[in-house]
Design brief:
The structure is a homodimer of 263-residue chains.
Chain A: H1 2-12, E1 27-36, H2 40-49, E2 56-60, E3 83-87, E4 90-95, E5 106-112, H3 118-123, H4 129-133, E6 139-145, E7 155-163, H5 165-175, E8 187-188, E9 215-220, H6 224-232, E10 237-240, E11 246-251
Antiparallel strand pairs in A: 1-5, 1-10, 1-11, 2-5, 3-4, 3-10, 6-7, 7-9, 8-9
């Protein structure tokens, strides 16, 4: 737990502003979405209807800034390395601290992130390309629609990792064990079938090379709500910047028990 | 699908008012909770925080009465064999039709029910006592608290099925495959450890005999929200009567795909 707490301390102090892939290995990382209370029912329902891209780990109610279950002592206004500010459906700026924008009616949603299954992939001997390169994972808008809920709708966003065909099978089996962090892939092999024209030009994150004979494998991504925020046109909303996640104190091996126990 | 639709038709026509265990075998049955929009965020969050007792299958928004994903053409005001009406935190009456109580601001929540895993148990050669006897499953209030959300809080309610020790292991493995309908048991063997003083006096449903050498096995139950409604003291709320479920068109074998696909 020390590694996660140390990283959050560095982030809070302004000493770490990079993507968090590979940082505090073994600890669950989370996507952040913050909306005013007036949109909170719609967004909670959007998550319920789109569990592959939006696997909810914790909801922090209005008036609170601490993710008590994921990270006691945390402060959602300062513990994410980079935030994005959305106004009226436009992403207007990025910041490393959103304390002075915070309002008492903000409700925060923390969603599972595919970074949490990368250690199990590496442990199985698979090469995860963007981890090898030390870059951000490539993410793409698709033509697969999400299920709408109130003001929220929009396309599914996916993250992509290339694997040789047999490793892609292993990757599907391994990630399928972690539904709390997007679970099994949603597609592989034919990016054009899900509306991705050019893998070398991701909509978020950094491109990675795909070697001859490798399949691009696609997982539902927690950046999906950012597309929904562009369409919802709320006066104000806040998210993490893609790849710059909230790092929790929960160990990845405890994920299967996160929702499946009663005490 | 015909069996489920026929049963809903009989219920709507007032020709079937009994518990639904064992009816339309193979089709998913659901618990119903209806609250005014003003309490809908709190209740949705309560479900998110208590997924074992409250595994959400579908939310039907204000102004709608049809569960489009679970049962196209359904009418939530008439398709449950028996309803319970809650006023100011008291269960005041039971009805077989709630059309004239319905309001445009009602939001309906359909939660998975353990009846959905009884066919797999029977298929594995296990005896399910209350099915053998044709009675309602016994349900008990426990001393395990649920995680509160807004106005909702209260004790976990469990359903109980007795099994010989080795069958109890099988039952845990089988039901663990169905997290959408409460999943694996939460306790077995020592009812007093979870606050149940007398198995012969269930709080809901009917008692069943437990033979020598059998373990009582306990599953989180979708009646849990009814305890939370008693405490929330909403002016008006509606649920199914315990054991009298909403029968859907979804096949039990499709449950694993219900939340885990994107199209």
């Amino acid at each position: 737990m020390q590694a996660a707490q140390d990283l959050r301390s560095r982030i809070r102090a302004g000493d770490f502003g990079r993507p968090t892939a590979g940082q505090a290995p073994g600890f669950v990382q989370a996507n952040l979405v913050v909306v005013p209370q007036s949109a909170a029912f719609d967004f909670l329902l959007y998550c319920q209807r789109n569990q592959k891209p939006c696997p909810l780990l914790e909801v922090v109610e209005a008036g609170q800034v601490e993710a008590r279950r994921l990270a006691p002592g945390s402060d959602l206004r300062r513990d994410v390395p980079r935030y994005r500010i959305f106004r009226d459906g436009k992403m207007v700026e990025e910041r490393t601290d959103v304390s002075d924008l915070w309002r008492d009616d903000f409700v925060s949603f923390l969603l599972g992130c595919s970074f949490s299954f990368e250690k199990p992939l590496l442990d199985a001997g698979l090469e995860v390309r963007h981890v090898t390169r030390g870059s951000n994972v490539p993410m793409y808008r698709t033509t697969i629609p999400t299920r709408p809920a109130g003001v929220f709708s929009g396309p599914l966003v996916v993250s992509m990792r290339p694997f040789p065909p047999e490793a892609a099978i292993q990757a599907a089996l391994i990630t399928g064990k972690f539904p709390e962090v997007h679970g099994a892939p949603i597609h592989q092999g034919a990016p054009e079938a899900i509306g991705i024209a050019d893998l070398s030009r991701p909509d978020y994150g950094d491109a990675v090379p795909i070697h001859a004979g490798e399949l691009p494998v696609f997982w539902a991504c927690g950046v999906t709500p950012q597309e929904a925020l562009l369409r919802a046109k709320l006066p104000l909303a806040i998210t993490h910047a893609p790849g710059h996640m909230f790092v929790s104190d929960v160990r990845e091996e405890d994920l299967p028990f996160f929702h499946n126990r009663v005490r």
